[in-house]
Every structure is written in structure tokens, then in C-alpha cells.
Design brief:
Order of helices and strands: EHEEEEHEEEEEEHE
Low-confidence stretches: none
CATH architecture: Alpha-Beta Complex
Number of helices: 3
CATH class: Alpha Beta
CATH topology: hypothetical protein yedk fold
Number of domains: 1
Helix content: under 10%
Structural class: mainly beta
Length: 221
């Protein structure tokens, strides 16, 4: 399960990648955890825009927002089966720009070794996501998201049986489309990203502490 991501991408690159009219600066983050805000790209009909949403999807029908802590990822093979995701996959898809993500390898009875996974050329990872809007008791709206996952490639498989669904640029338009409501058209995208284009290495257990957010988190041991 992808439970940590890093984002250190210049705003100009995000703007060009997603053809944004405007793009505010995205603060460099090296240990974004569920319940925190992260940048996501959404389509507004005639243009894409960058917003900051809370990680942990809260469905519109939820009684309270605590359910979000259980819905940080969404397996692509069961999106239409799960009540929490079947509406979002039709109407509320997004892309989360990231520099990398973390997975953990069990190393001993009580210890897990964190690994950092990124593109070999350090280009951005474009993670498929779903988002929702939930009405808070006071009437305000809470916007949240989950990262879509797929089967792991050969690089990630020793660490986890699933990995974030990474989209190729030629799939951005359809994934983000405000007018496409047929999930069947998304099936060709549900493939693991080629392992040959990615790298993984061990990092410090600093990342285990959600209060630590520094470049040291992604330094190779």
C-alpha cells in the first residue's frame, strides 16, 4: 500500500505537463502522509487546474470524515465494486503529481526497512487518483482524494503486491475528462508502469516519523 509520497517538482514543469492555465508553487515535500494536503490536478470542463486536497477519501454519503483514514488507496480491479469508489471513478478522477513513493520491506520480526521508488530519470510520477466532496456538519465542504493502485511491476513486487497506478501523458486527457463517465474506457490504463523506467533504493527510517519532512528522507543509504 502506498502510504507516503514525496513531491519536489517545479511549478513550471507541472504547468507544462498538465497544460494548466495557472499553477501556484507547490511546496517541496519529502514525506506527505495520509490526512495531509497534497496537490492534485482536476479537469473543470474547459481546462485543468491544480488544487490541494486532503489525502484519505471521504465519500459523499459518509456519516463522518474518519472513514478517510481507511480509504487512502483504491485498487483498480475493484473500483466499481466498492461503494466508496464507484461514483468517483465515473465522475471525479484526478492526477497526483509526485516525485516518488515509499514502500516497506520486512527485515526482522519487528522491523521494516523503507524503500524509495522513483523514475530513473527523476521525471514526475503522475499517479491516478479519485476525489470526492463531503459536506461537513457546519455546512462547509471537505475535498479529499485516494490514490488508485494496480498490480506491482517486478521492481515493486518484492515489497508489495500492488503499487500506485502511474499514468502515461497520452492517457491524461481521458483520465481527467470531465465528460467521460464510462469506466470501461479506463481499463487499458490499469497496467503496472514498466519496471525498466524506475529505480528503488533503501532509505533511512526517518520517513517512519510523519513529523519528519526533509530531503534526508529520500537519501539513499
Amino acid at each position: 500500500m502506498c502510504g507516503r509520497i514525496s513531491v519536489h517538482i517545479p511549478a513550471a514543469k507541472i504547468k507544462d505537463l498538465f497544460n494548466l492555465e495557472e499553477c501556484q508553487q507547490v511546496e517541496d515535500r519529502f514525506n506527505i502522509t495520509p490526512s495531509q494536503l497534497a496537490a492534485v490536478v482536476r479537469n473543470q470542463g474547459d481546462h485543468n487546474r491544480l488544487d490541494f486536497l486532503k489525502w484519505g477519501l471521504v465519500p459523499m454519503w459518509a456519516k463522518d470524515s474518519n472513514i478517510g483514514s481507511q480509504l487512502i488507496t483504491a485498487r483498480c480491479e475493484s473500483l466499481l465494486e466498492k461503494p466508496a469508489f464507484r461514483h468517483a471513478v465515473k465522475y471525479r478522477r484526478c492526477i497526483i503529481p509526485a516525485s516518488g513513493f515509499y514502500e516497506w520491506e520486512r527485515s526482522g520480526e519487528h522491523k521494516k526497512q523503507p524503500w524509495y521508488i522513483r523514475m530513473t530519470d527523476e521525471s514526475p510520477l503522475c499517479l491516478a487518483g479519485l476525489w470526492e466532496t463531503w459536506k461537513m456538519p457546519g455546512g462547509n465542504e471537505l475535498e479529499t482524494f485516494a490514490i488508485v493502485t494496480t498490480a506491482s511491476n517486478k521492481l515493486v513486487a518484492p515489497l508489495n503486491d500492488n503499487m500506485p497506478l502511474i499514468l502515461h501523458p497520452d492517457s491524461f486527457s481521458l483520465w481527467l475528462s470531465h465528460n467521460m463517465h464510462d469506466p470501461e474506457q479506463l481499463l487499458p490504463f490499469y497496467q503496472p508502469f514498466p519496471a525498466s523506467a524506475m529505480t528503488a533504493y533503501k532509505v533511512s527510517d526517518l520517513v517512519n516519523n510523519p513529523h519528519v519532512d526533509s530531503p534526508a528522507c529520500i537519501e539513499e543509504l
